[in-house]
Structure formats: structure tokens, C-alpha cells
Amino acid sequence: MKNDTLRLFFALPCPPQLAEQIVSWHDSLQLKGRPVIPANLHMTLAFLGQQPSSRLADLRTLAATVQGAAFELRLDRLVRRRNGLLYLAPSQPPAALLELVERLGEALLAGGFRLEERSFLAHLTLMRSCSGQPPPDCPTFDWPVSHFALLASETGPQGSVYHQLQQWPLLRID
């Protein structure tokens, strides 16, 4: 039987050049764990889980209605949780990011999609099962965010791989 569902989420895909800078710095820390590959670096805005592929058109339509302003995201904190999750985060999430998450969530709920119960945490996962203690300081990574995207997650022999299905621009406000 053919699997007609996709594991979907809306996210900010990390620009490739910035992803390479972050991974190069992270690799220099020589921490043990399961690192996220550069192509998978992203900030999740809304996780949808398994969805019927027949709902893709609905998701694309509702995402096109979500308006948001482009913004600069400054990742300046390195956090390791007790469960071994290591991530970069902004000390102060930009208002435009929080507004985008709220508008997207409202559109998804209005479209009949179910959202996670936990509140949004602005973060870029670097590693899972990190066993070492990261340094107290980290460099600042500035990320110009100009769009958001719908991504699908596929699990393969090397782990998860994310594929961008479509992206939508954020408005430049000068």
C-alpha cells in the first residue's frame, strides 16, 4: 500500500552560507553527539506532523495568505538542555518572528490543522544527544530572514532529510 502522508512543518530554512559558518564553528567545539547536517538547519515555526498529501494544496493556499515582515535574526546564545539538545537561540526574538509564528498558527487553526500544545521556542538545533558541556560564550550569527517555507521530513538510513516544498516571501519594510 502506498504511503500517502507526509511529515510536514513550516520553518525558516537557514541560508546555506550561514549554515556552513555555524557548522564550521560548531565542529571546532568537538562535542560528542548527533550533529544536524548543514542542509537540515532550520527554525521550526509550526510542526504539523503526519498529514495526508491531499492537504498540501490547502497548506499552500493558507500559507500564501500569511503576511509578515522580513527581519534580522541574531543567534547569540548557545544552550544545552539536560536531554542533550544543543541549540543556538536569540537573546531577544524579533517581534516580526513572533508575529509570523502567531499569524501562521492562526491560519493553520482556521484551516482545520492541529498544532503542538507547547509554546514556540525560537531555536536552531545543532546537535542531539550532546554529552559534553559547551563553552559559556558563543559568536553571534546574524541571519537576514526574507521568507518562510513548508518542509517535508523523510527518514532514511542516515537519518532525517528535509525537503523544501515551497516558500513564501516576507515583506521588506524600510
Automatic annotation (TrEMBL):
Renumbered ranges of motif HXTX 2: 123-126
Occurrences of domain Phosphoesterase HXTX (ranges): 12-79
Xref: InterPro entries: Cyclic_Pdiesterase, Phosphoesterase_HXTX, RNA_CPDase
Residue positions of motif HXTX 1: 42-45
Broad EC category: hydrolase
Catalytic activity: a 3'-end 2',3'-cyclophospho-ribonucleotide-RNA + H2O = a 3'-end 2'-phospho-ribonucleotide-RNA + H(+)
Entry keyword set: Hydrolase
Highest taxon, organism lineage: Bacteria
EC number: 3.1.4.58
Active site location: H42 (proton donor), H123 (proton acceptor)
Gene3D superfamilies cross-referenced by the UniProt entry: Cyclic phosphodiesterase
One Pfam family cited in the UniProt record for this chain: LigT_PEase
Family that this chain belongs to: Belongs to the 2H phosphoesterase superfamily. ThpR family.
UniProt-listed NCBIfam families: 2_5_ligase (TIGR02258)
The protein's role, per its UniProt record: Hydrolyzes RNA 2',3'-cyclic phosphodiester to an RNA 2'-phosphomonoester.
The protein's name in its UniProt record: RNA 2',3'-cyclic phosphodiesterase
Originating organism: Pseudomonas benzenivorans
Lineage: Bacteria, Pseudomonadati, Pseudomonadota, Gammaproteobacteria, Pseudomonadales
